[in-house]
Design brief:
Elements lengths: L7 E7 L13 E2 L2 E2 H10 L5 E5 L2 H9 L4 E3 L7 H16 L5 E4 L9 H10 L7 E7 L12 E4 L5 E5 L14 H4 L3 E10 H7 L6 H6 L3 H6 L4 E5 L10 H15 L1
Parallel strand pairs: 1-4, 1-6, 4-5, 7-11
Antiparallel strand pairs: 2-3, 6-10, 7-10, 8-9, 8-10
Length: 256
């Protein structure tokens, strides 16, 4: 089943009380809030788009720029859980059902059209249950612990995700790794078949997920296949005040 634009609901989960940067969806980058940047970039590709929030201020901001928003429970511990509640509420509200759900990070103000097109293309393979993105690491300085990396098979299905650069090249100094092996950094956008998202919501926290603190390992441990779309467009997540400052500089350079 191909992911036609009319069959996709893009959901942007947006919390106010982020652990590292409280209130970041409402922080300004140039003349717009972060959440408006994300929304408008996605609206260039997706026909159906929704911000799922737990805060009235974010809800009001989205409605203020004529976006779609819905209030969800504050208790959710993951964006996936918030997406699941949001699609139930929105389908009932709109009297429409969707075949695919895209979970889009609310702190990626420069989310690129190619990211969404790559997610859509992943579902051209009927075996795809979940889709995500990665970018090839081209600079050794980008290869550091803490970021999320993945290895994939020859048909671009993920084999594993880790917060350590993988694969580990036993017989070579680290400075030579990317000269001989492809390394891929994960970009945290996800596409789900609608029924698969429902299944994800029923799964318990898994051992590998608890070890790496990566929710996608829960799905893989339960036999779900994650297709990886490869993009040349880097992501730009905002988690700290330093990130916010860099985002403002980047936006200013785009305007100039």
């Amino acid at each position: 089943m191909k992911a036609e634009r009319s069959s996709i609901l893009g959901i942007i989960p947006a919390r106010f009380n982020s652990t590292r940067l409280k209130g970041k969806p409402l922080m300004k980058i140039g003349d717009k809030t972060m959440i408006q940047h994300v929304y408008e970039n996605c609206a260039n590709v997706l026909d159906h788009l929704l911000v799922a929030t737990d805060d009235q201020r974010i809800f009001n901001e989205v409605k203020g720029f004529n976006g779609n928003a819905i209030m969800t429970n504050k208790a959710h511990i993951s964006g996936t859980d918030r997406c699941l509640e949001a699609i139930h509420l929105w389908e009932k509200n709109q009297n429409k059902t969707f075949s695919f759900v895209f979970n889009i990070q609310g702190d990626e103000p420069f989310v690129h059209e190619d990211h969404l097109h790559q997610l859509i293309s992943c579902f051209e393979d009927n075996k795809t249950e979940i889709a995500t993105l990665a970018i090839r690491v081209s600079d050794l300085k980008e290869l550091k612990e803490g970021k999320v990396y993945l290895v994939k098979d020859n048909t671009n299905f993920a084999m594993y995700f880790s917060r350590f650069p993988i694969p580990f090249n036993r017989d070579m100094p680290k400075e030579d790794w990317i000269k001989h092996t492809d390394y891929y950094q994960h970009i945290g956008l996800y596409g789900f078949k609608r029924n698969v998202l429902e299944k994800c919501g029923l799964l318990q926290v898994s051992n590998l997920e608890n070890t790496e603190k990566l929710e996608q390992l829960r799905w893989m441990e339960n036999g779900m296949k994650i297709k990886v779309g490869i993009t040349n467009q880097p992501s730009f997540g905002v988690d700290t005040l330093e990130d916010l400052g860099n985002a403002r500089k980047k936006y200013a350079s785009i305007l100039n």
